[in-house]
Amino acid sequence: MSMESPLLLNAIIAWSSSHLALRIKSYEPIAIANRCLALQSLSASLSSTTRNPEMELASCLIHCAIESITGDTKEWFNHLVGAYEVIRSVTSSEDTSQLDLSRFSTTFEGRWLLRSFAYHDILMTVVEDRKPLIIAGEYWNFASDALVADSYFGLASRLMYLISRISILNGDMMDCADGSASAESFSHEAQTIQQELVSWTCGQSDNAMLVHLAETYRSAALIHLFRTIRQHRPQLTATLAPRIATQAKEIVTRIEKMPANCLAESSLLLPLFMAGGEVEDPEQIAVIRHRMQDIVEVRQFHNVQAVLTVLEEVWHLRATGVLGPGRRKVDWKDVLARRKWMLSIT
């Protein structure tokens, strides 16, 4: 594909040189020049009368990933929104639930692009406290690809959908600032999602690391759900605390069973972050800290370093007795608000 598309080729070269520059600082000027060229190619394509949405989507996602791995805390989101606009541009509907995705879903490459977008979009909702950009059910899950582990979320496709439903539930509650949302409907949806998360079973696989990864995603999804309930029903904080602690401990236990530098480790940031934001036991904190430090050192994913920086501040503030707004326990949301950061946890 890249040999047929200068747009995609320039984006891949920018990606590769940016990776190289993270390891060899002398390559930084070349990486910057390549990124500028790739952005110029994308701009030219978007303004062309002979656009190629597939290549434009791939380019936007690559730029999103470049900003992410280099530790950016804002621009990655702009490229994600750009990817969304490319997808939306192929349909006349303003309602994302009515998007015609057949332009992408009829080819293997197009389906992979949709899964890649969904992964970035859904994880964005967890940190940004908002709904997904695209709300169209499990649009990235195709029967023809069901038996293949995804390169991003492995065997956790259904869990990604449930995480998106939690974020939609959270967004719906935030939209009803006057409290008009039905307490009964909120509780019913939260309970329905929790039941599905608890009853979910991992697909058959002889790869134990993929199974461990999927189970950490289940626990991360449950933490996301319990945090959402806590946010909108603060009177349940004490009841939810042990449930959150149980899932955080489960994530730590699973992580300890995954060897450092295994392939599945590259998708561990979501569970590491969700557990790290809740654990208080020094030994559990140490497990999370050391694994994240290893990922930064070996893989040079600087967004992991940004996430660790936030968690380190949370751990320090809690250890020193500093309280958050309303005299509640300091949360990573407080740190992000103060720093004005948008974390990429992909």
Topology:
Layout: H1 6-23, H2 28-46, H3 53-69, H4 75-89, H5 102-105, H6 108-128, H7 157-175, H8 183-199, H9 208-232, H10 237-256, H11 269-276, H12 282-299, H13 302-319, H14 332-339
Helix pairs in contact: 1-2, 1-3, 2-3, 3-4, 3-6, 4-6, 6-7, 7-8, 7-9, 8-9, 9-10, 9-11, 10-11, 10-12, 11-12, 12-13
Pfam families: Fungal_trans_2
InterPro entries: Fun_TF
Keywords: Nucleus
Please give a structural write-up:
- With 346 residues, the protein is mainly alpha-helical.
- Helix content is 66%, strand content 0%.
- It starts with 5 loop residues before the first helix and ends in a 7-residue tail after the last helix.
**Low-confidence spans: pLDDT under 50, at least 5 residues?**
none
> What is the terminal separation in angstroms?
24 Å
Structural class: mainly alpha
User: What does the overall shape look like?
Assistant: globular
Number of helices: 14
Question: Fraction of residues in helices?
Answer: 55-70%
Q: Helix and strand string, N-terminal first?
A: HHHHHHHHHHHHHH
The largest pleated sheet is described as: none
- Tell me the radius of gyration: 20 Å
Number of strands: 0
What amount of the residues lies in strands? under 5%
Mean pLDDT across the residues is 94
